[in-house]
Amino acid sequence: MTSEFGSDPTLRSYAHLVRKRKWWVIAFALLGLAVSLAISFLEPKQYSATAQVLVQPSSQTGALGTTQQPVTPTQVQTMLQLVTSAPVTNAVRRKLGSAPAVTAAEVAQTNVIGITAVSTSPARSALIANAYAQAFIKTQRTTALSNLTSAESQIRSQIRSVGKQIK
């Protein structure tokens, strides 16, 4: 049973056409399989490693000591941007000789940032991810110490000023 020219093809006419051309269908399927296998075997293997960094709440000095301020989602997003900032990238470049690209993402709406590196070697991807994490932590520590030193000098200045006023 064949359909006439100009009539709408049916499922039966398609099945008949496939049976009639089954060797072509099989050949194209095998060719597609062979090409996809060749591509997967020829591509270099890619390994990823992730280093995780905890974003700590900032301590603020009040009249009765230090108080912990909770970390806001905005602060976590800011830290995400700082992971790949120029100071961090430059520190990684000094340590590794280059600064391969990494991705930074918040881990499941927490205060944890995952820094992921991809490389053709598992050890190299771990080295890159850890180098970014360490450079980020060092940069944040340096910034915090600088801020504390500045705050200390301002407080010392205020103490001297008040001391002069008392005398």
Please give a handful of descriptors for the protein shown.
167 residues, alpha+beta, three-stranded antiparallel sheet, two-stranded antiparallel sheet, 17% strand
Write the layout of secondary structure elements.
Blueprint: H1 11-20, H2 22-42, E1 47-54, E2 59-62, E3 65-68, H3 73-83, H4 86-96, E4 102-106, E5 112-119, H5 122-166
Antiparallel strand pairs: 1-5, 2-3, 4-5
Helix pairs in contact: 4-5
Quick overview:
With 167 residues, the chain is an alpha+beta fold.
Question: Can you tell me about this structure?
Answer:
The protein has five helices and five strands; from the N terminus they run ααβββααββα. It has helices spanning 11-20, 22-42, 73-83, 86-96, 122-166, and strands at residues 47-54, 59-62, 65-68, 102-106, 112-119. It has a three-stranded antiparallel beta sheet. A hairpin with a 5-residue loop joins strand 4 (102-106) and strand 5. The longest helix has 45 residues, at 122-166. It is elongated and about 110 Å long. The model has no long low-confidence stretch (mean pLDDT 87).
Summed over residues and divided by their number, the pLDDT gives a mean of 87
Which word captures the global form? elongated
C-alpha termini separation: 115 Å
Count of separate DSSP helical elements: 5
Could you state the oligomeric state of the chains shown?
single chain
Alpha-beta classification: alpha+beta
Strand order of the largest sheet: 1-5-4
